[in-house]
Amino acid sequence: MSKFIVRGGNRLTGSVKVSGAKNSVLPIIAASLLAEEGVSVIVDAPPLDDVITISKVLESLGAGVTYQNDIIEVDARSITSCEAPYEWVRKMRASFLVMGPLLSRMGHTRISLPGGCAIGTRPIDQHLKGFEALGAEISLGQGYIDAKSNGRLRGAKIYLDVASVGATENIMMAAALAEGVTVIENAAKEPEIVDLANYLNGMGGIVRGAGTGVIRIEGVERMHGVRHHVIPDRIEAGTYMAAAAITGGDVYVEGAIADHLGPVIAKMEEMGVTVIPDENGVRVISDKPLKAVDLKTLPYPGFPTDMQSQMMALLLRSEGTSVVTETVFENRFMHVDEFHNMNAEIKIEGRSAIVTGNARLVGAKVCATDLRAGAALILAGLVAEGTTEVSGTHHIDRGYVHLAEKLSGLGADIWRISMEESAVPAAAAKEEVVKPEPARSESFKGEEVKPRFQIQPSWV
Ligand SMILES: CC(=O)N[C@H]1[C@@H](OP(=O)(O)OP(=O)(O)OC[C@H]2O[C@@H](n3ccc(=O)[nH]c3=O)[C@H](O)[C@@H]2O)O[C@H](CO)[C@@H](O)[C@@H]1O
Ligand SMILES: C=C(OP(=O)(O)O)C(=O)O
């Protein structure tokens, strides 16, 4: 157990590199299960806890998985099990993404029900509706979902009631080896969907229209491993852009793809932040007082829900009152209570949060209630008076590679300690900061999912 310690007041400058996208690499690793021939090589796979978890799921199914220097190799030629047990699906909802490929390739799968999570109930009805349309028989019992098909799945037209990212991905993967053509209508359009489609096409699949609301998948008989580069993480990029903006900084976010960040850039520009994209990244200059803006989260290309809490941190420091409306998840304002502990004034009215700007934020002990809430609290800590301690770091480790190291590289006063240590006096605590482990080179087989960090003396 560890926590981040942040001392506010530093202006961030310099360059930070974005890692591969969590929300791309997870479905892509799952899709590797479709390859009956060859080995899949996934480049720019970020060393996140979620990546370890999905790798463990694949190993529990009989696939070979190795990880070295941000490259994952998956050998799924011999799958020995079709069951994703509770212990993995409980750790990470995205484990459910193995259902589509397993059903398509093996004709049978048994997966623990993913259940809700902190940000909402997150049902899976659209995934199941898609599998049933493709001819699977679904039964539920004892916390598990059983899906069986009589021979190959058969292509079908599927209209999604909500443009769900996960359902679109799961159905794309299920349809990849089905007989005939599948058309997904009201499909999600996120860049991660396009990345998955490119991966499936590289594996010998035939997927067209990804990135639009209608995706057409022509089923093929066999798929093979391929080498693929994961796209950069637009949410991680957006988080560093917000760090630059909130601290009045000047930061180059290397690897950020401006096209993937349209609404984030638009809102930052409305706030008075200068954003200069080029072909290798995005420069963010914040040299004026920030202005309040209203924003509403929506499926892509709307404003991403995964940037809502980080943006709220920024709005706390803006001139005027802002209204933030969350339409994607019904319970994604848990960071508001934590912000209150830092002296913020925010009122929740239904699906909206009314954010009073010009907040004099003060450091406090706060808890990351989910991944992005954790990032937002760290952003607030960067400008708060005094020291902020953010616990719940396991959430943050799901989605950010070396967060403290990347921010301190930009000049932030942030480090990580184990829970047993005291954050004060800070100088003493810095003697026992946490350093990332060297890259893994071994198979994940047989290991527990351990924190990827260990205490090292005198680092940073
Ligand atoms: C691993 C991954 O890629 N996670 C992302 C993915 O999550 P995930 O794929 O779980 O999110 P979805 O797009 O499925 O969820 C969007 C909305 O649809 C609802 N829904 C979803 C499926 C379903 O069968 N029925 C249903 O009603 C959900 O409850 C939610 O309200 O997209 C979210 C929305 O951009 C992001 O916040 C997550 O970071
Ligand atoms: C909600 C998120 O992820 P997940 O769907 O993996 O929980 C996120 O990345 O902010």
Automatic annotation (TrEMBL):
Xref: InterPro entries: Enolpyruvate_Tfrase_dom, Enolpyruvate_Tfrase_sf, MurA_subfamily, RNA3'P_cycl/enolpyr_Trfase_a/b, UDP_GlcNAc_COvinyl_MurA
Subcellular location: Cytoplasm
Gene3D superfamilies, per database record: Enolpyruvate transferase domain
Classification via HAMAP family: MurA
Modification sites for 2-(S-cysteinyl)pyruvic acid O-phosphothioketal: 117
Protein's recorded name: UDP-N-acetylglucosamine 1-carboxyvinyltransferase
MF annotations from Gene Ontology: UDP-N-acetylglucosamine 1-carboxyvinyltransferase activity
Sites where the protein binds UDP-N-acetyl-alpha-D-glucosamine: 93, 122-126, 306, 328
CDD domains, per the entry: UdpNAET
